[in-house]
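Fig. S4 source data, part A: sequence.
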Amino acid sequence: MIRSRYRIAAIAAAVTAAASLAACGGDSGGSGGDAGPPRPGGTLRYGLSQAPTCSDPAQAGSNQTIYVARQIVDSLTDQDPATGAITPWLARSWEVSPDAKVFTFHLADGVTFSDGTPLTAESVKRNFDAIVKLGAAKSPLGASYLTNYVSTTPVDRLTARVEFSKPNSQFLQASSTTQLGLLADATTAAPAEQRCAGGNIGSGPFTYAGWRQDASATLAKRAGYNWGSDVFAHRGEAYLDRVEFTVVPESGVRTGSLTSGQLDAISDALPQDVPQLEAAGGRLLSTANPGVAFGLLPNVTRGPLRDPAVRTALLPAIDRQQLVDTVLGPQFKAATSVLAANTPGYQNLSAQLAYDPAKARTRLEQAGWVPGGDGIRVKNGERLSFAVMFSQVFAGNQAILELVQQQLRQVGVDLKLDLVSGPETTARQNTKDYDATYFNSTRADGDILRTTFSVDGRNLSARERIPALDDVLDAQLSAADTAARVELIQTAQQRILDAGLWIPTVELSQAIGAAGGVQDLKFEASARLQFFDTWLSGR
């Protein structure tokens, strides 16, 4: 068997909270004190910071969506969050051809979907065929993982052979993701829109018991579940009877609901909320997200961002540490590359991203952008002004971009903020209707660079092919040797910055507020929550 490893918050409030965050920010899950052995039963009430966009794991993209959808599906493999090793789940073993074109999975026997139908090799085929049919517009991550997909062949009832026309070194890790989680035939046969309405049928430890678009989701324990991942801490059914997700966009309301006992856990706990959280006996659980760090992606066909000198001048114009210190708190880190530091293949490019406004001004002046009467630079009558489209998929986005807006103005750049909903973000990204777009993308594999930046994918920068970059992105997909693949991924990061195709800001971390009675709420390898081992004490 071959396995692969691979609005600005007040400064005073942030400083006041820093000591508390430093004390609890390293808690990456586990139990709150000595609560004794796990006890089954109970309902965990969870406050999401944003509404899930779709109940379908294959179409899930945001963290808040994946927190919900991950629980209803199992994947062929899992990834150990401590080591990065790919471990068995629905597939108990597998083989990978030397050229990384053929992946053969041997499935566990006796697995069923929650409608009672068996999981077989034919299920694998129908799931992957359906994701390819959904395409990049509906399942951008899933479709990217299946790049150059040819077919899935059921060799026998429990053996599935997945074939690609070109080497696909990232696919084994991709088989551990939420987007490639397996669903019953009744779900894979449904149209994309219907798959977002809460009726999805998986083989996971929970099932959908309720779904109200933009408001709430309820999960119920799957009776008889007994085929969990090797990463899970126990066998058999989940401990929790139910998980109730409610959308609570306002941070203060989320924290107040947690400390008053109306909720048991919340997303996106902010620095100023920590003292209140700790005073009520709660704690902060945090972990860093692997993948592409938050940043601005320019549309190179629009406005002054057509000029590469403008794009590269933005790199030293941003004080990333100030973003962390002022807005976020010490469990977050300033971006030091395109990839977050805990991503396989990360290359430290902090020297290129060092805050140096004088360097930024020099680059702009050398490119012919001179200060205008109001301090904003102009060239041939065009103002150095552009808008960045963003959503509040992460609660700190607006505050971060407001501070970036102030920083860029100091070098003569007028940044306008364009706050839109999650669905509008996706729609406008698909039509390239923006000057720049702000986001991150989580995955514990360096191939996320290809998904995000390849000219052959969504091509969000609307650029022409750059052989020096695109050839490297393609080559890492084909590299069978791990060291060679890492070198290619590192080269790609450098060339993305050199072309000004990404303006990094901060690395995302998950900051989860949890009541004292919430035990073993854990993060999986891509920093999403796993509720299978979670249990409640003191009730």
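Fig. S4 source data, part B ends here. The longest strand covers residues 149-156.
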